[in-house]
Task: inverse folding
């Protein structure tokens, strides 16, 4: 560890470069556990664990990493083929007869319908909240009235779909914990 940096600051610097790195904290001070949420730590372990407890907490993380695959979709245009990591997709919107896929790094334009892209995507993670929008449920920062916020973007939610959106989001969060 670099001089002057504690584990939390080190984790914050890691997150500046890579959001996908799995972070596990181990400490003797329980009061620092809350800071793990700031950097999306996978686990926060206490140093006083026995070896068996340590192994029981660490092995599921190792198994998850070994079985985790970067899931992506491959989409083609006449000019190019793109591999888009599903985790990087923020939301998708219609633009005339095209769809715009907004990702963490860039936007992609494809001549396809929302129904076509819906069939390609994982239905547990994505939700069509409006005729013109599909959102990545894991990227939602806030729901207020009939609007979703993802980053700085506000996305409308159909008044007929807001309840189902909240149910799907709660279900997804329940599966993640």
Result:
């Amino acid at each position: 560890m670099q001089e002057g940096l504690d584990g939390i600051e080190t984790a914050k610097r890691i997150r500046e470069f890579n959001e996908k790195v799995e972070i596990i904290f181990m400490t003797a001070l329980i009061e620092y556990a809350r800071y793990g949420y700031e950097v999306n730590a996978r686990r926060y372990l206490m140093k006083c664990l026995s070896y068996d407890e340590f192994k029981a907490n660490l092995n599921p993380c190792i198994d998850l990493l070994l079985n985790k695959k970067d899931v992506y979709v491959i989409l083609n245009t006449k000019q190019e083929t793109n591999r888009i990591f599903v985790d990087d997709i923020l939301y998708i919107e219609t633009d005339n007869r095209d769809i715009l896929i907004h990702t963490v790094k860039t936007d992609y334009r494809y001549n396809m319908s929302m129904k076509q892209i819906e069939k390609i995507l994982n239905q547990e993670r994505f939700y069509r909240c409006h005729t013109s929008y599909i959102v990545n449920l894991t990227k939602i920062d806030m729901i207020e009235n009939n609007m979703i916020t993802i980053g700085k973007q506000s996305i409308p939610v159909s008044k007929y779909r807001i309840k189902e959106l909240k149910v799907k989001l709660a279900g997804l969060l329940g599966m993640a914990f």
About this structure: The chain is about 30% helix and 30% strand. The CA atoms of residues 58 and 157 lie 40 Å apart.
